Structures are given as C-alpha cells and as structure tokens.
Olfactomedin 4 (Falco tinnunculus), 464 residues
Amino acid sequence: MKHAQVAVLLLVQSMNALARATATTEALFANVPGTMDDEGTCQCSVYLPDTTFPVQKAEQLEIIAATLSEKFEIELSQVKKYSKMIELYQQQILNITIRVEHMEKSSVSYTELDFQLLKMEISDLERLVTQLKSSLVGSNVIVEQIYLEITNLTILVNELESLDKNNVLAIRRQIVSLQNRLKECEEATNKTIIPPYFPPGSCNHRGLLNVSQPYIVKLNWRGFSYKYGSWGRDYSPSNPEREVYWVAPLNTNGIYLEYYRIYSSFDDLLLFKPIYESRITYGEGSGAALYNNYLYYHAYNSRHMVKHNFKTNTMVLRKELPDAVTGNRFSYAGVSWQDMDFAVDESGLWVIYSTERSMGNIVISKLNETTLDVVNTWQTRQYKPSVSNAFMVCGVLYATRPMNTRKEEIFYTYDTATGQEGRISVIMDKKLDTVQSIGYNPTDQRLYVYNDGYLLRYDTTFQS
Ligand SMILES: *[C@@H]1O[C@H](CO)[C@@H](O)[C@H](O)[C@H]1NC(C)=O
Ligand SMILES: *[C@@H]1O[C@H](CO)[C@@H](O)[C@H](O)[C@H]1NC(C)=O
Ligand SMILES: *[C@@H]1O[C@H](CO)[C@@H](O)[C@H](O)[C@H]1NC(C)=O
Ligand SMILES: *[C@@H]1O[C@H](CO)[C@@H](O)[C@H](O)[C@H]1NC(C)=O
Ligand SMILES: *[C@@H]1O[C@H](CO)[C@@H](O)[C@H](O)[C@H]1NC(C)=O
C-alpha cells in the first residue's frame, strides 16, 4: 500500500516536471533573430530541440497514475477490511483466552481425575451419613433418604465414567447440595439428638452427661428474703412414682432450719397448698433431704443427724455422725452452715461432710436409714470449702463450683464404687448468684436446686 502511495507521488512529480518543461519551451522562443523579406514580411526560423513534448508519454503516465490510484484505492479498502477482520479475530482470541482462564480457574478439566475426585467426595458423603445413621437413636427418614441418594449417585458416576464426561459439573453440583443438606441435617440432629434413655433407678450408665436449662418452679413459700434453704422430691424405693415434695427455707439468718412444708403433688407446690407445714427446733444449714417419708437433717449446734417423721412431725432418731466437723468450719464456698449435707440417690441415703482427719476434704458416708449408722465411708481429695455444693447419683459424688453469677459448673466426681476421682465440666445455668443446695431424685432423674430463694429444677442426661 505504501508502494501505491509512492507511485502516485512520483506520478504527480512527473506531471509537475512536465508543466515546467512546457514553460521552458516557451522561453526558448524569446530571442529568435528574424529577417524581413521583399514584401516586408518578417520571417524567423525556429529550431525546436530534439526533446519534443512527450504528449504520448504524458498520456501514458496519466493512464498509469489512474490505474495505480485505482489499485491503491482497492488496496486501501482491502487493508481496511483486513484490519477489521483482525480486530474480530483478536476479539475472538480474547474471548477464548478468557474462557480458558475461567476453565482453568474453576479447575473444570474433564479428565479421569475428576471421576477419582467425585468418587472420593461420594465416599466421604457415604462415610458421613453412615456415621450420622449410627449416631442416631432409631431411624431418621431424612438421613435414610440422603443415604439412598448417595448410593444412587455412586451408580450414576460409574455409568457416566464410561459415557458422557461432561456431566461432571452437574454431579458436582448435586454433591454440593447433598453436602449442604447433610450439614443441615447434622446440625439439626445435633440439636434434637435424643440422649439414651435410662429408666428410673437404673445406674446402667457412665455418669452425668449434661443438665438442661433450669426450670424455675417458684419462689420459696416464705419469700424473697429467705435466700437459704433446700427443696426436692422424696424418693421412696418401694413407691418411686408417688410425688411428695418438701421445701425448707432456713430462717433469714441462714442458720436455723425451723419451718418446712410438704406438698403431695407438684400442682399443690405450685399453688402453695401444703399437706403439712411444720416446725422443728432446730435444724442447721440447708443440707436437709427427704427420703422414704422421712426428713433427714443436721441438728442445730451438734454433731447429730436427725431422722424426722413429717406425717407426725416427730423426731424418730437422733444420732451422732462420727468425726464430723461442724460449726460452719468446713461448709461450702459461698454457703454457710452446711457442714452436713444429706444426699439421696438410687442406692439410698448419704451424708457429705468433712472431718479433722480429712483436713476439710470431702468425706462421703453411706448411712443405714433405719439406724443412721455409717455403713461405709470414703475420703476424697477435694477440699469441701472450695466447692459450692455436692450431690450423689448412682454412688458417684458430683461437686460444683461457681463460674460466674449466672453459671455453675459440675466439675468434680468421686465414684464410691471404684474410689476414683474424676473431672467433668457440665455447666448449670442459674438465676441468681448462689446455689444453696442441690438434691437429686432417682425417679425423675432431676436435680432440685435452691437458688437464693428460688426453686429450680433441671433434667439430667447420662452417658451411655
Ligand atoms: C465475545 O464474548 C462476548 C460476551 O461473551 C460476546 O458478546 C461476543 O459476541 C464474543 N465475541 C466473539 C467474537 O466471539
Ligand atoms: C434412585 O434411583 C432409582 C432408579 O434410578 C430411582 O427410582 C429412585 O427414585 C432414586 N432414589 C433417590 C433417593 O434418588
Ligand atoms: C455435631 O456434634 C458432633 C459431636 O458432638 C461434632 O463433632 C460435630 O462437629 C457437630 N456437627 C455440627 C454440624 O455442629
Ligand atoms: C447441655 O445442655 C445445655 C442446655 O440444654 C445445652 O445448651 C448444651 O449445648 C448442652 N451441652 C452439651 C455438651 O451437650
Ligand atoms: C440397716 O440396719 C438394720 C438394723 O441393723 C438392718 O436390719 C438393715 O438390713 C440395714 N439396712 C441396710 C440397707 O443395710
């Protein structure tokens, strides 16, 4: 195309030269000498130079120029066409590059590897679902459904491998959606997982697993200022389903147990309709417990245990607890005057206390409830004043400590069957700062907590 331009330029230049040549020719005729003839006619002779005006050449040139510029025009338009096409190609290349990059980025390369990956993902899913299935008690329709779909997917992938490899993406999407559903399902079942059931009285479990949120039953019947006390449900091994509740707020000084109430149903408790409301003189601390129709408590200013018949409101038996240290020396952390804490579990009546020999560490004694004799004694290595309370379940002592004003932690265990101590962490939410007493009922497997005057109740779950 440059050539054509040059050609045209040359052509133009030669035309100019031609024009100049003509002018020169005219000049040549300027000083020609002339002669006069007889008739007075002036004659002059001109000798034209050899280089006569090249009219034909000029014409030829003109034709060539025209042809050339025509060609040039053609070439020029061709160029324009080509560069347009090149632009288009560039665009296409760019598009392809982008697509390739995209494919690389999303790692979608349809190779054998994809099928390996798919198979791995599917077997992962399968493993998850199998785990989920086995962790669920009984059958779960959703999990069964997902399991079927995964099995179908495995078959599908095997088929596809020998056929259409482009469906890898579709399968991927299916896997992702299955994974999400599995996760949802797992989260849901984690929330609603049904803990193994252990019938009342059964100790065929491996200890406390968790406690529920507290159920606030009521404020104690004497009112808000009666912050110390105990409450719970009677356990009568011969008639475990019968409901009898006791509520025993201490006097406001936090020492004397003087008045207590017995309710013959939970509704009566809620309605403040006691079957008995009685006075004793006096118990000490908030460690009392009701077991098989008798109230057991620590007799005031003594080392004595009292067995009390609430129906007749009479003391049946009073007996010393050997070596027990009393007088608020080794009470619980944050809870005064509870040197003797009675506890009831599946196997009967216990008392939790300290001795001089134990140096304030918790001592557990199993009592014969008929005679109040100590049947057996266990020494723990847990300092009693550093725990906030304790209770017994299936022969295992559980001790608590405050985490903050709203949470208590069951952190220590002592198994009287093996003499083994243990650490656990079961968090108990509480409503107010101090847990004055915790009692356990083997029939409903609930914890009864006296929390700064409020009566709280917790469901428990056990480890299988
Ligand atoms: C390039 O891609 C864009 C968007 O995908 C499309 O609109 C355009 O037609 C493509 N151009 C070519 C040349 O393929
Ligand atoms: C599994 O595949 C069979 C046959 O293709 C189909 O009838 C069934 O509905 C599939 N099941 C699930 C859970 O997708
Ligand atoms: C479900 O609980 C198990 C064990 O309790 C835990 O490993 C898993 O991460 C939990 N899953 C979800 C989705 O919360
Ligand atoms: C224990 O129970 C509480 C209250 O229901 C619950 O929030 C918590 O997640 C449970 N803890 C465990 C470890 O299951
Ligand atoms: C409690 O003591 C009485 C009287 O000694 C006895 O008959 C009874 O079997 C004892 N009970 C238990 C559970 O050991």
Summary: The helical segments are 2-28, 55-105, 112-135, 141-161, 168-192, 266-270. Residues 245 and 266 are 7 Å apart (CA to CA). The longest helix spans residues 55-105.
